[in-house]
Amino acid sequence: MHSANQDEASVEPTPTHLSRDEPKCDSQLETSNEFPIRSEPYPPIECAWIEDHLPSFPSWTSDSSSSMAASFARLAGNAPKRLCLRPSSLITSIPRSRSITTSVPRRHAEATSYQATRLVPTDPTFTSLANKGIPEDPEASALESEAEGTDRKIRHYTVNFGPQHPAAHGVLRLILELNGEEIVRSDPHVGLLHRGTEKLIEYKTYMQALPYFDRLDYVSMMTNEQCFSLAVEKLLNVDIPDRAKWIRTLFGEITRVLNHLMSVLSHAMDVGALTPFLWGFEEREKLMEFYERVSGARLHAAYVRPGGVSQDIPLGLLDDIYQWATQFGDRIDETEELLTDNRIWKARTQGVGVVNATDALNMSFTGVMLRGSGVPYDIRKSQPYDAYDQVEFDVPVGVNGDCYDRYLCRMEEFRQSLRIIHQCLNKMPEGPVRVEDYKISPPPRAAMKENMEALIHHFLLFTKGYSVPPGETYSAIEAPKGEMGVFLVSDGSERPYRCKIRAPGFAHLGGFDQVSRGHLLADAVAIIGTMDLVFGEVDR
């Protein structure tokens, strides 16, 4: 044990704070808490070094000092390299990365700064968008050439974007390769929401397979049902009543408004605008009530079925839809007042995610992703289905092909959908809403109470299903996100032999790598938002 005099002598004096430019002597370095800057490495840790320095630690006993010295000796002997402390080498300036274009020296570069880690592109042919057309600084080039052989360079670093990112719109996982904040390459990983929908449909009857389509794009439900119903009706070679066609068209446009509200407003929230998102959900709640009144469900309606729709529109619903449609135009104007001329919104979307018409066609873009690049392709115009050949509407197209143009296209589609909704309300015909073939659609309840044959038809329809003639067909509609297609193969039984679903979001996500290259990491959020991705349909 040490005496009290030794304890008092071992107390460290108050450190003397020196300025950076004032030289320090050896005695000052020993009494300072600052890390001493040395030009040569510290000596290796050895037993003799520890024994020499043990008296400065008064709490150690002789037994503990010998055991500690032996432990360090074993550690130093077994390690592949001797333990030593080496400060980083000093430099007078910091070599700038290739992504820095200005020739002004850094304000924070000081004589005692440590050398920063450099980023060397993986692809030698890659050129930053910020460096195009700007001559390279010769001083920075000389510094980079001198440091090429050092161990202080690394390749592009990769980050995981998602699947738990709030702007991933589901379970998206992006492997991003970055040069600083600049995206060099991206690798979307899909399948985290894969449920085997196409295979499950093969084990269900055509009636039982319908609810699976509600779970694909769970933001635009009735349009998915509409696509599958059209494919089955082609194989059955049936023509549904006119009232059923107009009801499908009416709720198809209501679904389009539902989808675009979620798409535009969540896109705005991703880049920092929260108020439009809260306003838009009030309108979505009104449309969800229309869903509930017509089908009994707010989300997974299962309303559009092969042969028509499940039931007629209840009394008073058309009047309520008209009241909503007359005031929704003002809500669109209010949203545009917040976003369209907002300089922050324009800075985050203009010139971001630019896709020309050729690339959009080559990457199989459809819907707003294609029309935003200037291609006026809309299946409702080119291959009309249901009652779209009897309504008048325009197809908005973009000019620049960036995120801002696609936003403007969706805002104009709000107004065109209102035009179609007004025409459906004014031209809604009277009549049945299902085909009167009881082998395809169920008979009314009144007939089942009076007719035994109708009761048998109802029992067989919901237990065995109906047989579809052998054949194959492809049916496509203009879903809110793009071209939604169903390739259906029948072998003559009550169950489909094969059902291939063409989801628009899958093709859009496949083009993310090409669209996002050269943009900043923050722009990836804006590009994902403009693609309007829902991973129920992407992963299926």
From TrEMBL:
Any GO molecular function: quinone binding
Domain NADH-quinone oxidoreductase subunit D: 270-540
InterPro entries: NADH_Q_OxRdtase_suD (IPR001135), NADH_UbQ_OxRdtase_49kDa_CS (IPR014029), NDH1_su_D/H (IPR022885), NiFe-Hase_large (IPR029014)
One Pfam family, short name: Complex1_49kDa
Gene Ontology biological-process annotations: mitochondrial electron transport, NADH to ubiquinone
UniProt biased composition (Basic and acidic residues): 18-27
Region (Disordered): 1-37
Keyword Amino-acid biosynthesis carried by entry: no
SUPFAM superfamilies with a match to the protein in the record: HydB/Nqo4-like
Alphabetical keyword list: NAD, Translocase, Transport
Gene Ontology CC annotations of this record: mitochondrion
HAMAP family linked to this entry: NDH1_NuoD
Family in the record: Belongs to the complex I 49 kDa subunit family.
NCBIfam families: NuoD, PRK06075.1
The protein, known as: NADH-quinone oxidoreductase subunit D domain-containing protein
